[in-house]
């Protein structure tokens, strides 16, 4: 009797604080079939064992299931591809209204070992919905001596869409002593590969609204480079007098949202402040980056909603001379529906290829957008918004060359089974003409820059413990290889941590040993049963 009494006391001491409970005072809730997320950390040296939970649901007398998913650690978003599961499922009928706990029995049971921290997602089947609490003014953690819960968020579509945060799961978690950490296999990209290129033949800055521009009184000067493209500089602007190039020039007749082909050099002038070197570009009043980068003709842009046809508006004047010089002046042209004037001048050397966009004054109070820049004709790669004032001087090329870096990806995680299984990865974006491939298996990540070895921008992301050499068939752009054969998991299975990387030889990217070597990103891997 004394022995039984002592055992009862010992068990009571270990689980005295069970259950861990947050709150059931919900003030919010998710959609049918939604998910709620949080973190759990085991503080008990003996671990904890969980066979059921109690949850708050937003609909009563409804049957369905709740699935429990896990991810390793807590630093990934709800959209992370590393969620594993369901590792447990509970069938439930919500007999109680929101605010009252409903028990969910988990099968199989769920356990955590000492010091183990996991992300948890509870996913409702399509007929159920979580009731939870907006936690803006609530504590971020809830704990007992054995278990700690950290507030997360909710989403109406599991593992995708917007995350509503912070949202406190309404839960009670009863537990008993004893448990081990779930073994979750993971793969995380490390660093970047090299060998790619990112040069562009266009640039732009989008100002929204137009009154936010910082280019008044300055001019953008494009000087041709040997081999094509331009050096772009910024300097104090000058607006030449109208008629200074051709005293006989007269204002163009431009309606609203139109363009007109003028002169002897294939120039097209737009009422909305664009000068193109050919036909077909958008005459839309609203500037968009998509239209600019897909317009069929090369053009210089100070694009916004101008109306030179408005009464009292200044004119648009085209001038040229016999040496191939062109000058187009928007001389106090009104913005649409306003009397806000814009003065801008385009000066183009059609023989030498250079050009200048001189910005006198842009509409000071207009709510419209301004898109300022230059783009070659046809589909162009997007270089991203450029702060011209902060970035100049800079260069653009004659054509886009956006080649991705060498990349290493894994289509699955290194999950151990009851028998040995190969863990395959794929090297992608292999340059044309590459001759050979080395797969690197390492036990650590040096993160060592290789510039001094003649591999600019490349890094060593995995230590050189095992090297796997292969000759690549001609024309190979993607190569799948077995990084390691995972041993069978047994009753005393241990976790393996390793790093992977690819190296490709025979490219034109650099002259390393005359072989043109480039490296991929790394993959940091951990084996697991889930």
Tell me what you see in this structure:
The protein has 530 residues and is mainly β. The chain folds into three domains: 181 residues, PHR domain (Jelly Rolls, Sandwich), CATH 2.60.120.820; 131 residues, Immunoglobulin-like (Sandwich), CATH 2.60.40; 202 residues, no CATH class. The N terminus is likely disordered.
Short summary of the structure?
With 530 residues, the chain is mainly beta. Helices cover 4% and strands 42% of the residues. Strands 2, 3, 5, 6, 8, 9, 10, 11 and 12 form a 9-stranded antiparallel beta sheet that branches. It has a 7-stranded antiparallel beta sheet with strand order 24-25-26-27-18-19-29. Strands 15, 33, 36, 38, 39 and 40 form a 6-stranded antiparallel beta sheet that branches.
Rg of Cα set:
33 Å
Helix proportion range = under 10%
- By secondary-structure content and strand pairing, the structural class works out as mainly beta
| Mass-distribution shape | flat
Total of helices: 3
Q: How far is it from the N-terminal to the C-terminal residue, by CA?
A: 43 Å
Q: Which percent range describes the beta-strand content?
A: 35-45%
Major β-sheet profile: 9 strands, antiparallel
Number of domains: 3
What would the average pLDDT be, to the nearest integer? Answer: 89
* Low-confidence spans: 1-15
Q: How would you describe this structure in keywords?
A:
Jelly Rolls; 4% helix; 530 residues; Immunoglobulin-like; single chain; seven-stranded antiparallel beta sheet; mainly beta
């Amino acid at each position: 009797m004394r022995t039984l009494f002592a055992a009862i006391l010992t068990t009571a001491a270990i689980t005295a604080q069970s259950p861990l409970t947050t709150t059931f005072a919900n003030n919010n809730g998710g959609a049918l079939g939604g998910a709620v997320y949080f973190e759990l950390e085991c503080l008990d040296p003996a671990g904890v064992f969980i066979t059921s939970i109690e949850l708050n649901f937003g609909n009563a007398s409804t049957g369905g299931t709740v699935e429990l998913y896990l991810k390793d650690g807590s630093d990934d978003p709800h959209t992370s591809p590393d969620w594993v599961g369901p590792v447990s499922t509970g069938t439930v009928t919500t007999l109680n209204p929101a605010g009252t706990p409903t028990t969910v029995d988990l099968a199989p049971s769920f356990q955590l070992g000492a010091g183990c921290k996991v992300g948890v997602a509870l996913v409702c089947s399509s007929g159920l919905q979580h009731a939870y609490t907006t936690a803006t003014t609530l504590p971020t953690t809830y704990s007992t001596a054995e278990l700690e819960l950290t507030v997360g968020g909710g989403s109406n579509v599991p593992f995708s869409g917007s995350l509503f945060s912070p949202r406190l799961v309404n839960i009670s978690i009863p537990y008993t002593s004893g448990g081990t950490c779930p073994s979750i296999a993971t793969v995380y990209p490390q660093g970047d590969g090299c060998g790619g290129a990112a040069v562009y033949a266009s640039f732009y800055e989008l100002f929204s609204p137009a009154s936010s521009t910082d280019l008044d009184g300055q001019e953008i000067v494009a000087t041709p480079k040997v081999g094509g493209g331009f050096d772009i500089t910024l300097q104090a602007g000058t607006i030449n007098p109208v008629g200074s190039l051709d005293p006989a020039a007269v204002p163009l007749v431009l309606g609203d949202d139109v363009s007109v082909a003028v002169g002897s050099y294939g120039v097209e002038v737009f009422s909305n402040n664009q000068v193109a070197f050919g036909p077909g570009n958008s005459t839309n009043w609203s500037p968009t980056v998509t239209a600019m980068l897909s317009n069929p003709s090369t053009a210089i842009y100070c694009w916004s909603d101008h109306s030179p046809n408005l009464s009292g508006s200044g004119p648009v004047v085209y001038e040229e001379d016999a040496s191939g010089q062109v000058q187009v002046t928007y001389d106090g042209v009104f913005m649409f529906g306003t009397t806000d004037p814009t003065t801008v001048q385009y000066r183009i050397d059609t023989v030498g290829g250079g050009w200048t966009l001189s910005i006198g004054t842009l509409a000071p109070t207009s709510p419209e957008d301004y898109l300022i820049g230059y783009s070659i004709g046809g589909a162009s790669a997007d270089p991203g918004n450029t702060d011209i004032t902060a970035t100049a001087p800079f260069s653009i090329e004659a054509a886009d060359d956006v080649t991705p870096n060498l990349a290493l990806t894994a289509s699955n995680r290194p999950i151990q089974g009851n028998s040995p299984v190969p863990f395959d990865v794929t090297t992608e974006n292999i340059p044309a003409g590459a001759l050979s491939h080395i797969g690197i298996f390492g036990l650590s990540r040096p993160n060592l820059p290789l510039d001094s070895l003649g591999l600019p921008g490349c890094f060593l992301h995995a230590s050189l413990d095992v090297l796997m050499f292969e000759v690549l068939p001609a024309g190979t752009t993607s190569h799948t290889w077995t990084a390691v054969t995972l041993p069978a998991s047994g009753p005393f299975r241990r976790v393996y941590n390793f790093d992977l990387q690819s190296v490709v030889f025979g490219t034109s990217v650099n002259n390393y040993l005359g072989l043109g070597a480039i490296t991929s990103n790394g993959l940091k891997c951990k084996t697991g049963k889930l």
